[in-house]
Amino acid sequence: MPLKEQALSLCSGLTARAKRAGAVNTLIRHGDRWDGDNTDGIGLVHDLTERRRLDLRGRRVLMLGAGGAARGVAPALLDAGIAELWIVNRTPEKADALSDALGEPGRVHTRYVEDLAQLGAFDMLVNATSAGRGDGGLNLPFSLATSRSLAVDLSYGEAAISFLAWAGAAGCEHRFDGLGMLVEQAAESFAIWHGKRPDTDAVYDALSARADTLLTAD
Fold first, then answer.
1. Strands 33-37, 26-30: parallel, antiparallel or unpaired by DSSP?
2. Per-position DSSP letters for 41-59, written without gaps between them
3. Which of 5, 128, 179, 205 has a CA between 20 and 30 Å from the CA of residue 213?
4. Beta-bridge partner residues of 62
5. Are 115 and 89 in contact (CB under 8 A)?
6. Are 124 and 66 contacting, i.e. CB atoms less than 8 angstroms apart?
7. pLDDT 10s per residue in the chain (218 long)?
8. Which residue range(s) make up the domain with 73?
9. Please, which residues have CB within 8 angstroms of residue 31's CB and are 6 or more apart in sequence?
10. Do the domain assignments include residue 152?
11. Is residue 191 part of a domain?
12. Is the pTM of this model over 0.85?
């Protein structure tokens, strides 16, 4: 972050999911050339459906942001069976570009930030913006969420605190940062490089404990 879209332009070849995402987070060397893949989306879905045992099918999803992180996870969410994906970005043109790239106008919609209060409640909210990384937080209406809504920040640690705090105040029962996604996408990349997917539970538990210790110390 934030070079996933630029990385794509430097690759000689791309996997189907990297082409669909329009962003690369994994580089594979073949002789004197570099090919690109994107494991973000499958990492997120694996964390939510396998580790958290959550069913994503039929959910109405709000995606905040349209950069490389959003591009990486949006196709995987659609493949996981969500009903609708609504994309809101501070630069509307980027949201429209992502929607067009996904190629599913019946399921994917874009709106302006100013429209948020009129969009109703969502079953899942995904923060794919850099808000929380030093450039200010998000000013979101509580009407976007209910107690049954799932809130996910693709960032982790301190960068995810403000969005997850908002989700808690909005009453969301399930709130997760991107640490699980980080671990799972890395495991997918490892499998591409070495032909074997490592067991991620121990890694996630160790990193989660470490993150809790650091936040408590702060």
1. antiparallel
2. HHHHHHIIIIIS----TT-
3. 128
4. 86, 125
5. no
6. no
7. 678 888 999 999 999 999 988 889 999 999 999 999 999 999 999 999 999 999 999 999 999 999 989 999 999 999 999 999 999 999 999 999 999 999 999 999 999 999 999 999 999 999 999 876 655 567 899 999 999 999 999 999 889 999 999 999 999 999 999 999 999 999 999 999 999 999 999 999 999 988 766 555 55
8. 41-176
9. none
10. yes
11. no
12. yes
Residue 18 inside a domain? The answer is: no
User: Would you name the residues annotated as active-site residues?
Assistant: 4
> Does a structural domain hold residue 20?
no
Give just the sign of the alpha carbon dihedral 87, 2, 185, 34: positive
The sheet that has 150-153: what strands, in order across it?
108-111, 84-88, 60-64, 124-127, 150-153, 174-176
Dig out the tokens for 161 from the structure.
Answer: 């605190």
We report the CATH number of the domain holding residue 140 as 3.40.50.720
